[in-house]
Amino acid sequence: MFDKFEFLLGESIRVFRRNSSMSFAAISTVAISMFLLGGILYAYLAISNYAQKQFPTQFTMEVFIKSGTGTPEIRRTAQQMREIPGVSKVVLIPKERAYPKLLKEMNMPEFREEEGIPIQDKFQVTLSDLSEETSAVVSSQMQQLPTVDSDNGIKYLESEQRFIDQLLRLLRVLGGIVGFLLFITAGVLIHNAIRLTIVSRRLEIRVMQLVGASRFTIQVPFLFEGSVQGAIGGVFSGLLLYMTYNLLGQAITGFDVFGTMPDFPVWPVVGLMTGVGALYGFISSLVALSAPLRYR
Amino acid sequence: MIDTPNSPLIQFDNVEVRYGKIVYGLRGVSLCVEPGEFVFFVGKTGAGKSTVLKLLTREVRDYTGSVKLAGKEMNTYKDRHISRLRRTMGIVPQDFALLPRKRVWENLAYAMRAVGHSRKEVRNRVPEILQQVKVGHRADAYPNELSGGEQQRVAIGRALINRPPLLLADEPTGNLDPEHSWEIMELLSELNQAGTTVLVASHDMMVIHRMGKRIITLDQGRVTNDSAIGEAVLV
């Protein structure tokens, strides 16, 4: 067993060394594509997190109810809101629950108003999308409901929310397209690197096939090469992400987008990137092996 | 895998192989080879000699008729079984297929390790094989330091690593001068005398006749003569 493993490992290392320039190309492309994908994903999460902390939730409006509105009317209003096109969710936040929270946020948990609770019941309305048309139409229709406070009864940060939403969409699209293209390129490069290695080792493969080596024995070194290329690319992309995170943290001090995220989890990220890279390299090399290593 | 008491080791029955729509590899070939026989397949280039051997190694997979090895029809071997099938036979290619950056003993060791032999087995068996094929004294040489005959001996040695009961050699003397050709044939004959069934595709008629073994002649994919049965098979 150990003998077999030792042989396969030795062959794998030999395969890897045989084709160093192509390996370098494959590794660097994996690293860059995963760096871009990971970076865009991280920026997306950071901005999304930031937006949630700084503004009312991305797709939400706060709708305030007139003081003294009874429970049946509130229920009816909620039902009417749910029927408005563009509304996906309506949640009632009673003032009894909102007030202690507000005091806590203001650092006055012990404060008690003598004349009862000085805020109104409100609904938190989640929109299905944040286009200018939808939010304006929903807002005006809600304003017409009789129980909704006519004076500043609807609160939402139109322009800021829209900007954040558009930024996130841009990141999603950009990240998706660029990352996808680079990821495919990396896969093709790994595939080509494996094919070149197969060509350069065709005599060894022929000898193995002549004497009846198993398909597994013949394929393992190439699968190892692809996986290692992917894994090394993944390690580099993780480290690059960490370095970029630190550099950005130092450069952008005024607008603390990254500050809203937990500390960069360097080892989990590097581990994840390595795993994803190795898996991708394995799959790319498996595709490359399917035809040329068929027993002849 | 090869254990054939009371039945032919190899049996071809009306075998036809086509390469493309109009080129025939074999046309209606029927023959039998008993265990322990030494058989030459002779004929011009394209006569079908190599096709016969390739059917047995499953390099050629599509055929009609019946090809049986040890009673088992060849097309029942799936892709995943071919490696096991190959371990029951020794294959000697015309071009030696030796690894140029490995020494003689390493060429054999590499092949043995590839089929799962341990280091200990390699240490014991490689010198034994090299002695058997008479290149023990060149164990540390690289292939390009060997004569053609020595290289072919190493290739034969490599074919013996699995102790195969069947040895297939495709033009083993094709690249050799008459003297070395004769040495290789003698070596194959010794292996045959030790019990190995040997099939050789060759067109080296001078050496073949000198060997005095069974000769099957092929022409344009047909068996035109089998010395075991005489001219009767002439088409």
Explained architecture:
The complex is a heterodimer of chains A (296) and B (235). Chain A is built from nine helices and four strands. Chain A has 296 residues and is of the alpha+beta class. In chain A, α2 packs across α8, α6 (158-200) packs across α9 and α8 (215-251) packs antiparallel against α9. Chain A is elongated. Chain A starts with a helix and ends in a 7-residue tail after the last helix. Chain B has two domains: 1-88 and 165-235, Rossmann fold (3-Layer(aba) Sandwich); 98-163, no CATH class. Chain B has helices spanning 49-57, 82-86, 104-114, 119-132, 148-159, 178-193, 205-211, and strands at 10-19, 23-33, 38-42, 64-69, 72-73, 89-92, 166-170, 197-202, 214-219, 222-226. Chain B is globular and about 45 Å long. Chain B has seven helices and ten strands. By secondary structure, chain B is of the alpha/beta class. In chain B, α3 packs across α4 and α5 packs parallel to α6 (178-193). Classes of the chains: A alpha+beta (296), B alpha/beta (235). Chain A binds chain B through residues 3-4, 7, 203-204, 206-215, 217-218, 294-296, and chain B through 58-59, 79-80, 82-88, 91, 93, 97, 99-100, 107, 110-119, 158-159, 161-162.
Question: What does the secondary structure layout of this molecule look like, with pairings?
Answer:
The complex is a heterodimer of chains A (296) and B (235).
Chain A: H1 2-18, H2 20-54, E1 60-64, H3 71-82, E2 87-93, H4 95-105, E3 122-127, H5 132-143, E4 154-155, H6 158-200, H7 202-211, H8 215-251, H9 266-289
Antiparallel strand pairs in A: 1-3, 1-4, 2-3
Helix pairs in contact in A: 1-8, 2-6, 2-8, 6-8, 6-9, 8-9
Chain B: E1 10-19, E2 23-33, E3 38-42, H1 49-57, E4 64-69, E5 72-73, H2 82-86, E6 89-92, H3 104-114, H4 119-132, H5 148-159, E7 166-170, H6 178-193, E8 197-202, H7 205-211, E9 214-219, E10 222-226
Parallel strand pairs in B: 3-8, 3-9, 6-7, 7-8
Antiparallel strand pairs in B: 1-2, 1-4, 4-5, 9-10
